[in-house]
Design a protein that fits this description.
The complex is a heterodimer. Chain A is an alpha/beta fold. In chain A, 23% of the residues lie in helices and 30% in strands. Chain A folds into two domains: 93 residues, Translation factors (Elongation Factor Tu (Ef-tu), domain 3, Beta Barrel); 134 residues, 3-Layer(aba) Sandwich (Rossmann fold), CATH 3.40.50. Chain A has nine helices and 15 strands. The model of chain A has no long low-confidence stretch (mean pLDDT 94). By secondary structure, chain B is of the alpha/beta class. The model of chain B has no long low-confidence stretch (mean pLDDT 94). The chains are: A alpha/beta, B alpha/beta.
């Protein structure tokens, strides 16, 4: 059997600054060895360890969609030793990727359902992967209505802006883009915090509705009551958690919430499942 | 059941013979304490010890282990590509491991050898190892292994159980691996099975009777995780803890680890090191947020993991083998037996 600690060698193929404050960059990687891309086949919602030899590893959600071939994409916030080093790396540099890791959004369950996707700040990466996956021609008919509420501090802090504005123009997805505040007089979308916009714009729940929520802890906390008001039950609210991780394969012991390991049993849980565990995330 | 008789006068000669086929590990005196180490030529296991300060877990799971390595020199091919180092996994034998430590390795195996992933470093070391146990004739005051499904003569996880009978060892041959080791050592004199098993039985019941601790975990499985997690006693239990982490390092069933990279010139290495859930850094997020930032949360995590999460997850009992090391070495006298009894007898007030 293969060594789960051994990363696939990759080359940085492209680096894009993702936000106006330059704290986030999107890295596009291509696999060095033929066959590795296939071995890395993933589902929207999974994550991977970005592995820089001599520096260390970081767990990051996969931002590209399984429907996009030839590369994998990650958007990384500069915060610690590894992410700061990564932000200074160049196109052409060699590093590693280990994964895919963790579970994913329950795509089988979501078939023929209404899906509302709620994201805030940097936590839009696996949601971007999900939207691209759902909007792909051969997949779109598998889902009923798709709504997206996505908010950031200001217009320049929204990730994947070009794609957001493209999706805004489509009639098979309802976009509700919002910012906390802006002094831009031409801003034509929403202003207000995500929980408020959810309450105002997100569709009411019926038995065929699911919400996927991913964002900072404070956003998650205040979005829950909004979803409850709209009629979403704990088993209809799907969340992706984060915790400090090292191994990513359920062995090193630090990311647990109760007996569940966020890296292996998660990162995706329903609120119903989370309600049964200690809130150690 | 085959029993082999080993005259103590031929013990060192047999050990030396076994070195031709095995790399040996065993308990040795290191200054004032006994720990498990590789036995180089001329070194023999300390067989008179009561408790080793550290368990034998390091034979399978070293305190520091290089898991990957590579070169950062861009002028050579394969630079920045990590590879597994060439570790020697030829047959090894650990001599004089106590029954509770052998049982602990079986519990830890549930973590490292799973349906989804196999940790190759742990599993390769485990598979290469023959476990030669030494029964505990006189348990220490800290030993409560009879209450954790092990006991001073427990056989789980062992290939051979040695019983010290003054002039000789009686060796119960438990597996084929054990038989192979005894052959390689030249220990082949069969004992008369019936009377020797009787001798062993007598020593066993004497040893078991010497353990007088009381610990009961039987009711923990009927309580929910949240019931115990939210119980009011954690602040009191954690009050004196200084988060030194000693309990986690001396514990034979603690397996948590950290992964760290190091560079020396153009060479880079990735290591894994024992880690401890008592350290706030263990769970600190990049943002500074820490889900277990408070001492009480960390103490609760350790005991909930050992006595409740593990029990619920694997249905193989609690993650404690009753060696008593954490009780003996805790600088502030936190006692897992008391914690276990407190959890077991807790009834939520409606």
């Amino acid at each position: 059997m293969e060594n789960p600690y051994l990363p696939y060698p990759v080359r940085i193929d492209d680096i894009q600054i993702a936000t106006e404050d330059k704290s986030l960059k999107t890295f596009k990687f291509v696999f060095l060895n033929e066959g590795d891309e296939e071995k890395f086949s993933y589902h929207a919602g999974q994550f991977a360890e970005l592995s820089i030899p001599g520096i260390g590893e970081i767990p990051i959600g996969i931002a590209s969609s399984p429907t996009e071939k030839g590369f994998v994409k990650f958007t990384v916030f500069k915060t610690g030793v590894v992410t700061s080093y990564l932000h200074n790396m160049k196109v052409g540099d060699i590093m590693g990727i280990r994964g895919p890791l963790g579970n994913w959004y329950p795509w089988d369950l979501l078939e023929n359902k209404n899906v509302v996707i709620i994201g805030g700040g940097f936590a839009f990466t696996t949601l971007r992967s999900s939207i691209v996956y759902m909007l792909k021609e051969e997949n779109r008919s598998k889902f009923k209505n798709i709504d997206v509420v996505y908010g950031a501090r200001s217009p320049g802090m929204l990730l994947y802006r070009d794609e957001l504005y493209e999706w805004e123009k489509r009639d098979d997805i309802n976009m509700h883009i919002t910012v906390d505040g802006t002094d831009d007089p031409t801003w034509k979308y929403n202003t207000g915090f995500v929980p408020t916009i959810v309450e105002e714009k997100a569709p009411k729940a019926d038995k065929d509705s699911y919400a996927i929520v991913c964002g900072p802890p404070i956003m998650i906390k205040f979005t829950q009551p909004s979803l409850e008001k709209l009629g979403y039950k704990p088993d209809q609210i799907i969340m992706s958690l984060e915790n400090r991780m090292k191994c990513g394969i359920g062995m090193c012991g630090r990311c647990n919430i109760g007996k569940e390991l966020v890296c292996k049993d998660g990162p995706v849980f329903t609120l119903e499942e989370i309600n049964k565990t200690p809130k150690e995330y | 059941m085959k029993v082999i008789k080993i005259d103590k006068n031929s013990w060192t000669k047999g050990i030396d013979k076994s070195r031709e086929a095995y790399k040996l590990f065993g308990p040795v005196k290191d200054k004032t304490i006994v720990i498990f180490k590789e036995l180089e030529q001329g070194m023999f296991p300390e067989m008179e010890y009561t408790d080793s300060v550290l368990s034998a877990k390091s034979v399978i799971f070293p305190q520091t282990e290089k898991i990957l390595g590579g070169s950062l020199d861009e002028s050579i091919e394969d630079h920045h590509i990590l590879k597994r180092p060439d570790t020697n996994y030829s047959p090894r034998a650990v001599l004089g491991i106590r029954p509770y430590d052998a049982k602990a390795i079986q519990l830890v195996k549930l973590n490292f050898d799973t349906e989804d992933y196999r940790d190759p470093y742990w599993c390769d070391a485990y598979e290469a190892t023959t476990f030669i146990g030494l029964a505990i004739n006189e348990p220490s005051a800290f030993d409560f292994s009879t209450l954790t499904d092990t006991g001073p003569f427990g056989e789980e996880g062992l290939d051979i159980l040695l019983v010290d009978c003054k002039e000789e060892y009686l060796a119960k041959v438990l597996t084929d691996k054990g038989e192979t080791f005894l052959k390689a050592s030249g220990f082949e004199e069969s004992a008369n099975t019936k009377p020797s098993l009787k001798t062993i039985k007598a020593l066993q019941s004497k040893a078991e009777k010497a353990i007088t601790s009381k610990i009961d975990s039987s009711k923990i499985k009927d309580k929910t995780i949240l019931e115990l997690y939210e119980a009011p006693f954690w602040d009191d239990l954690a009050f004196s803890c200084i988060n030194c982490g000693t309990c986690t390092y001396v514990c034979p069933t603690c397996w948590c680890f950290d992964i760290q990279d190091e560079t020396r010139g153009k060479t880079c290495s990735r290591f894994r090191n024992w880690d401890t859930c008592m350290d706030p850094l263990f769970t600190m997020h990049g943002s500074g947020h820490n889900p277990r930032g408070e001492k009480t949360q960390r103490v609760r995590q350790r005991f909930m993991h050992k006595l409740k999460y593990f029990l619920d997850k694997y249905d193989k009992g609690i993650m404690c083998v009753g060696c008593g090391r954490c009780v003996k070495h805790c600088p502030v006298n936190i006692d897992i037996r008391e914690v276990c009894n407190t959890m077991n007898s807790y009834e939520k007030q409606e």
